[in-house]
Amino acid sequence: MSDRLTMEELATLMKSAGITVDPSELASRPDSRFDDYGLDSLGLLGIVGELENRRGRALPTDADRCKSPREFVDLVNNSLMTGA
Amino acid sequence: MKSRTAGTPVAITGIGVVAPNGIGADAFWKATQAGDSVLDRVTRQGCEHLPVRVAGEVRGFDPGALVEERFLVQTDRFSHYALAAADLALEHARLGRADYEDDPYAVGVVTAAGSGGGEFGQRELQRLWGQGPRYVGPYQSIAWFYAASTGQISIRRGFKGPCGVVASDEAGGLDAFAHAARGIRQGSRAMLAGATEAPLAPYSVVCQLGYEGLSTWDDPERAYRPFTAKACGFVPAEGGAMFVVEDAEAARRRGATVRALLAGHAATFTGTRSPDSSGEGLAHAIRGALREAGLAPEEVDVVFADALGTPEADAAEARAIRDALGGHGSKVPVTAPKTGTGRAYCAAGTLDAAAAVLALEHGVVPPTPNVFDVCHDLDVVTGSARVTPVRTALVLSRGRMGSNAALVLRKGPESRA
């Protein structure tokens, strides 16, 4: 489903927060912490906002508290599926 | 944390400058000493049609080459200058992570800022009203704020010592040195201190249009000529300077060069009513700073003037210098290199302090560009630099809102002759 959040798209969103990361690195180490990539809580909040604008729908309120790419991608995709 | 006494000598060991006339202490000093004026027509996007025609813009500054992208996206231009200037100051002081990684609490940061991040704030407000609240980025919450530079320098470098922001009008740039000295005397090993400003963005410029004394002349050579009969106000500028401030003894122990000593500081507040009262307040600040330094008026070798550039404010400053220094006030060399770069609000005092430290190091008083035919009883250095032994420099700063400050710098014992 094209609506699903991929590691490629997450890498693009992280770029807008000033973090350059290879999508394959995100995919191969999905449990690394956002902190370790240098992404802070406001950065993740900005990514949530951008993603909500792109998808035209709200994400769960705890989306910006996710600690790792895997946690975030799973939460976003579960939410998109159940809301569809 | 070891506490030191009130008399502990506090040293400047590193200077980081991002100024309209040069990036880095060497480039800045070369242009300042030569008396080059870089005042020019305002070219910043969105500002071209505004009534302020001339300014001191920092050109050729590439933040992406100096600061990591993740810090750039969450900060305004004024913080970009501060982050870059802090790096330059640390490099100049040869103070690296190895010097403090055993005790990150030993290093603190203090900055002063007047206008904060107007350019960043304007962009986000335009998103708010153009696209809606969902398009305002979260960094709006921190980037516009005048505390941003202190916080980001501290985070980026891992400095966990005392961090603060001076909000005391334009004179805050000099007050930051006093706060840094206090940090050292309370036990910090080093403090990053200074100020940077970025007031050349459309929203910020519009905010300044009501300032009495803002020059709207369109000739870069005539727009800012303090202490002359043609004085028509001041020209705004951006940029600023950061400094590494250390306990002088500790600096020597680690092999650092003591470039100058922070000998004395005092500040007063006289309100906005009239330039006359700023003269009295400034004189009081000068006396206080000399008292702390334990120096007589005759020992001042050069005065870096505030040079607000209106006839009343210039007269008040000339009177303050003569009142506080007595007969020496008419004889001591007075300079205002900012006539070649513009007045960078809070950062103006820090750029003057940088020029003063370099003047002490080199034994040269830089000139006051574009100023000729001085109409006050002051020995203003015009035309070209004056080579003269300089052991003590007095730096003056006033804010339009009524703050006045004086800073006394002494030549470091290890400076070049």
UniProtKB/TrEMBL annotation, chain A:
Gene3D superfamilies, A to Z: ACP-like (1.10.1200.10)
Listed SUPFAM superfamilies: ACP-like
Name listed for the protein in its UniProt record: Actinorhodin polyketide synthase acyl carrier protein
Pfam family, one: PP-binding
PROSITE patterns: CARRIER (PS50075), PHOSPHOPANTETHEINE (PS00012)
InterPro entries documented for this protein: ACP-like_sf (IPR036736), PP-bd_ACP (IPR009081), Ppantetheine_attach_site (IPR006162)
TrEMBL record, chain B:
Alphabetized SMART domains for the sequence: PKS_KS
GO molecular function: 3-oxoacyl-[acyl-carrier-protein] synthase activity
Segments passing through the bilayer: none
Top-level taxon of the source organism: Bacteria
InterPro entries reported in the protein's UniProt record: Beta-ketoacyl_synthase, Ketoacyl_synth_C, Ketoacyl_synth_N, PKS_Beta-ketoAc_synthase_dom, Thiolase-like
Pfam families named in the record: ketoacyl-synt (PF00109), Ketoacyl-synt_C (PF02801)
UniProt EC number: 2.3.1.-
Enzyme class, first EC level, given as a word: transferase
Gene Ontology terms: biological process: fatty acid biosynthetic process
Database matches in PROSITE patterns: KS3_2 (PS52004)
Secretion signal, residue range per the UniProt entry: none
Keywords: Acyltransferase, Transferase
Keyword Transferase: yes
Stated family: Belongs to the thiolase-like superfamily. Beta-ketoacyl-ACP synthases family.
Protein name as annotated: Actinorhodin polyketide putative beta-ketoacyl synthase 2
Lineage: Bacteria, Bacillati, Actinomycetota, Actinomycetes, Kitasatosporales
